[in-house]
Specification:
Strand content: over 45%
Structural class: mainly beta
Largest sheet: 7 strands, mixed
Distance between the termini: 68 Å
Shape: elongated
Length: 223
Amino acid sequence: DVTVSVDPVGNCCATAALPSVIISEGCSYITDLEAKVTGVDPNTGNVITFTVPGKLTDFAGNNHWEPDTLAVFNYTNCLPNGSTYTVRYTAADGCGNTSSCEFKLTVADLVPPVAACDEFTQVALGANGEALINASTFDDGSYDNCGGTVYFKARRMDDNDCQDHEFFLDQVKFCCEDVNDTITVVFRVYDVQVQTGAVGEDEFEGHYNDCMVQVFVEDKIKP
């Protein structure tokens, strides 16, 4: 069984490269190769079925004294995200014999979202000498290739007494120690729902993308 990702650009579907297989034939020759793909479109509920032609080719290190060779197949139609298919390979020889094998092919969105953020931002501290800025404040049109909801977290690039930088959080804290300084903030966009609060740097790998924000911190409160 295999899992394929949706195409990097397009309509959130996968033009899948079917895996190659070794074909062995004892005394005849291969006359026909095909892959039949069958499944259900999760968006419409309609049954999807089509065939993909195959052909024989050589491969590196092939021992030509052995009656085997490599069968390769064309790409599939564009298969919707979140769908699963049965792929049935069938080979026929010159004597009319056929042989088949099957596997499951699953389509998933393994393309990270696009992170777009405000490159430069200014923050003024409050009366208590602090400012808590929502991660969503840094967003500037981030989106997912499949059009789903995106979720935001952020963290300071370097920690100080205001806040550490070990986790991605819903808010970034600035304080008096940051005044008249430019703080680098890592803004992270997820294409899967993440929990409220702290999220580890390596959690949800493959489902996020980052961009950097330069935050200038000001103190405009009168003494």
